UniProtKB/TrEMBL annotation, chains A, B:
It comes from the Bacteria. It comes from Amnibacterium flavum. One of its GO terms (molecular function) is DNA-binding transcription factor activity. Keywords: DNA-binding, Transcription, Transcription regulation. InterPro entries: LysR_HTH_N (IPR000847), LysR_subst-bd (IPR005119), WH-like_DNA-bd_sf (IPR036388), WH_DNA-bd_sf (IPR036390). PROSITE patterns: HTH_LYSR (PS50931). The lineage of its organism: Bacteria, Bacillati, Actinomycetota, Actinomycetes, Micrococcales. The keyword Magnesium does not apply. Residues 1-62 form the HTH lysR-type domain. The keyword Lipoprotein does not apply. GO terms for cellular component: protein-DNA complex. This is HTH lysR-type domain-containing protein. Pfam families: HTH_1 (PF00126), LysR_substrate (PF03466). Belongs to the LysR transcriptional regulatory family.
Length: 303, 303
DNA sequence: CTCTCTTACGGCTGGCGTAATGATT
DNA sequence: AATCATTACGCCAGCCGTAAGAGAG
């Protein structure tokens, strides 16, 4: 079995269409058809129910197809992790080196704590990797990071990861200094009703991420305003967006404490639920250094 | 990255030699050299320290090489499991079907219990797969079985598996009916000193397996006799070996209770430690039906 | 001189693209 | 007719094998 074939099959299975998958994979549809046919021949069983009475509705998966879709996704992700981890190892001269993912919204002391945690473990070195907003999950799955700090609605589990909640962060609304509410230290959701808001984007694998940073669900009568994109990738981009007067943005108080600009003001919003910051690792990651650092950080939990 | 290349690299890394690995892989050595070189180029880092001052001692691994060796082994095993599971799914008409591995030495009621356990779980079907002696571990790793019954020295953990001990089995020595000890119901290790014994082979991934079925370690003055191969693959082969007068064999009492032949006698050996029978699954196997059946069987433990 | 890995080169296979065909609504 | 997949066929890249080269004991 070949990883390329597997990628081909997974694309077809996910999109339920050879034509669509061929586009996605940047290859011709007949070539894709052949590739999957070869895979089926090698496995000795059909993976897709073809063209019977559904040429319009695309293809359906067989039991074997369902199985290979699940297994194949895992396998492709594992292959990418292997590649990424090897590349990273190639960049370090010696010893074990772990990548700690964080975003510009992560409280600084936590990043420092991660580096400090490694000092206590012999032969293990942790280096920080800054990730784009909302890519923490993806970074762990693809192997760009071994561990990552994650922000999520309190108590929401994240599939595929082992997460330990560490802190709760109050939330603030960021507005320009010349905003009508800028002189208020704290505001309510009612005050913010109808305000244009920065598009938070969405985080693969983190359900509820988008709603979290839109301040949803909001009580009746405090509707959300226009959502303005594109999503910010970092805190700096978020501040620039706000300073330009295009709308407000919701952030954690930790962000506002760490980044100060005189053209942007942070207003505490007490009726927005706090967000939880946690440290995450892949459930199936059994590498001892990863476990050790993870456990050390877990012990710092204030929850 | 390609699985073929990965297999090439893993072979070289494990054997610490291109020449040896090329033989193992049934390909020419220069082709293998190129294949690994291509992989290194793709990854952008060296995996092996070449030909510096060790052309005699073979190659050494770099940090990246060590990483890719570990990751690659896992990945290749995972690929094989994916393939095997898909093939199995292709053979079942519908629904979830799990393979329960056992050997001819597994107490029958446990196999029956596994099938019965599935009846209580909706949409899950368990079917038995008979494995060769000592291949239980390998079967789980390669995906031939999702669960398997395993026999091991009491309390010995098996790497890579989650195991629940279920029962302890007394052990017996199998001898021909015309053997000098055949009329005795029970014997000691001292009685068996110097007897020729069937080669138990070894089980990949189960440390101590060989010693277990040789009755080792034996007290001083009760030395092991000649070890006669080839290893038996099933209980029937073992009985035939013994009946032919080529030597004795050590088995669990459960085996002797289940298989009766008038040309072979089972003698209880009280001073051999009991073996533990447990049910095993892969640590990282998170599929709910596997967990459910495993947990149901774990609840049957008498330990 | 032997052992081992690398470089060079030629041949072949396998996978892709284009074009044509089939099946269904 | 339009859509979606398969079959037919030619082309090319990549991989393997053979042969030659290079460095160390």
């Amino acid at each position: 079995m070949d990883l390329r074939q597997l990628r081909h099959f997974v694309a077809v299975a996910e999109l339920r269409s050879f034509t669509a998958a061929a586009g996605e994979l940047h290859m011709s549809q007949p070539a894709l058809s052949q590739s999957v046919a070869r895979l089926e021949k090698e496995l000795g069983c059909a993976l897709l129910h073809r063209n019977k009475q559904n040429p319009g509705q695309g293809v359906l998966l067989t039991v074997a197809g369902e199985t290979l879709l699940e297994e194949g996704r895992d396998l492709i992700a594992a292959a990418q992790r292997a590649e990424e981890r090897t590349r990273r190892a190639g960049r370090t001269s010696s010893g074990v080196s772990l990548a700690m993912g964080f975003t510009s919204g992560t409280p600084q002391h936590l990043v420092a704590a991660a580096l400090a945690a490694a000092d206590g473990i012999d032969g293990v070195d942790v280096y920080p990797v800054e990730l784009d907003w909302g890519h923490e999950h993806q970074a762990i799955v693809t192997g760009r990071a071994d561990l990552a700090y994650l922000q999520y609605a309190e108590g929401t589990p994240v599939a595929g990861h082992t997460v330990t909640g560490l802190e709760l962060l109050e939330r603030v609304a960021l507005v320009p200094t010349n905003h009508r509410l800028a002189h208020r230290g704290r505001v309510t959701l009612a005050d913010l009703a109808g305000e244009a808001i920065l598009d938070p984007g969405s985080a693969e694998g983190v359900p509820g991420y988008r709603d979290l940073w839109l301040g949803e669900p909001r009580p009746a009568g405090m509707p959300i305003g226009r959502i303005v994109g594109p999503p910010a990738r970092t805190v700096q981009e978020m501040y620039s967006f706000v300073a330009a007067g295009r709308g407000m943005a919701i952030a954690s108080k930790a962000v506002a404490d760490q980044f100060q600009r005189d053209d942007v003001v942070a207003l505490v919003v007490p009726d927005l639920a706090s967000v939880e910051v946690g440290v995450a690792r892949l459930v199936e990651d059994r590498r001892p250094p990863v476990r050790q650092v993870f456990d050390a950080l877990s012990r710092l939990s204030r929850l």
